Amino acid sequence: MLHVIPSHQGRPSDDPIFALNKEATTRRASGESIVNATVGSLLHDDGKLAILPTAARAVHEVPAEEWAPYAPIAGAPDFLAAVTRDLFQDQPEMAECAVAAATPGGTGALRHAIANYLEPGQSLLTTSYFWGPYQTLCDESDRRLVTFSMFDADGKLDVATLDAALTKQIAEQKRSLVFLNDPCNNPTGYSMRPEEWRGVVERLLAHAEQAPITLLVDTAYFEYAARPDTRGFLKELRPLLGKVGLTFAWSASKSFTHYGLRVGAIVACVPDAKERSMTDAAFSYSCRGTWSNCSRGGMRAVTRLLADPEMRAAANAERDELKKLLNARVDAFNRAAQAKKLAYPRYEGGFFVTVFADDAQERARRMKEKGVFVVPAKGALRVALCSVAEKDVPRLVDALAE
What is the pLDDT of residues 129-180, one digit of tens each? Predict the structure, then answer.
């Protein structure tokens, strides 16, 4: 007799990306020459995890009495204030109406958005190339996921298909929640230009009077954007205030290279005071009903990294060095991939790039036989360039091309 409910029976026991990484690691340990482009963590060229020294120091300097107690349900107030300041540095209008809650990494923020902006059985809308756990989060909360074609014929964000998907979704469920992972989209590496953001805003506003629409911007990788102004896109979102729900998933995992610390936040911009109070209560209730509260010590360390001028400057300088490491791989990939005429989106920076492939599963299998590991998806191969040494990029591209 099976006691697990039918809808949860037969689920995979391991995330497919983690399973591929385990296989690659095992083969490397046996002495095989392996290129492992599955790991979503930034590694040095010697394969060791890249860690900001200042972030590590901040974690170790948190006293025991800060690690041990429970944290406030919605997160430490100084942490939430520091995250809000960090996100909206040049956007006082957004900062003034922001409400936030601490979450275990950016994933927790995504979970809260799905639970609070969609009813059970309704659908999240996102791009056709998306981070796989978006689907998992929907499955776990009895929601569904639908997509719109991410790229148009010119290789830009396809705003027309977004518009059509919004029209259909509003007609079917009378509300919409849209996830956009930008800049440095996972898995494509694509970063939208200001005019693309303006197109998105225009279409969201066109539907805003018909039903409640919420946009969540997943900013997990925004600190690794190629453009100097990593928060420049925010000014394009100002017209949404008070008309379209505007939320953000903020994460310390990549920004401060402490993935296992699980420190993140959901931040919502809500100009109406009554609705802001309601949103704050909903987020807090969701915290209590899931993980109860987050790591007090983790929040303390990240608050120092954000709020202490000396530590913030040191961490930013160290991250800039890691960006140079990553961008050297991006440049090497673009040179080699263009020479081999690979088909992939515009790639200027970020942890991942996606190579289009109709036979992705078969091609990934053949690549594994040659000791090169990538992640197959529908119509594409996800390449975690963040974990590939620059010297191995030519071998990786050759395997992709062959």
Answer: 999 999 999 999 999 999 999 999 999 999 999 999 999 999 999 999 999 9
| Alpha carbon 106 to its chain's center | 7
* Distances from the Cα of 269 to the Cα of 72, 100, 112, 198, 229, angstroms: 21, 9, 15, 18, 21
302 and 367 housed in the same domain: no
Q: Using an 8 Å Cβ cutoff, are 25 and 35 in contact?
A: no
Residue 66 to residue 366: CA distance in whole angstroms: 50
Q: What's the CATH code of the domain at 392?
A: 3.90.1150.10
Q: State how far the Cα of 311 lies from the Cα of 309, in Å rounded to an integer.
A: 6
DSSP conformation letters of 267-301: EEE--SHHHHHHHHHHHHHHHHTTTSS--HHHHHH
CB 255, CB 312: distance < 8 Å: no
For the chain, report the end-to-end CA distance as a whole number of angstroms.
49
Q: Do residues 78 and 215 share a domain? A: yes
How does pLDDT run across 316-327, given as a tens digit for each residue?
Answer: 999 999 999 999
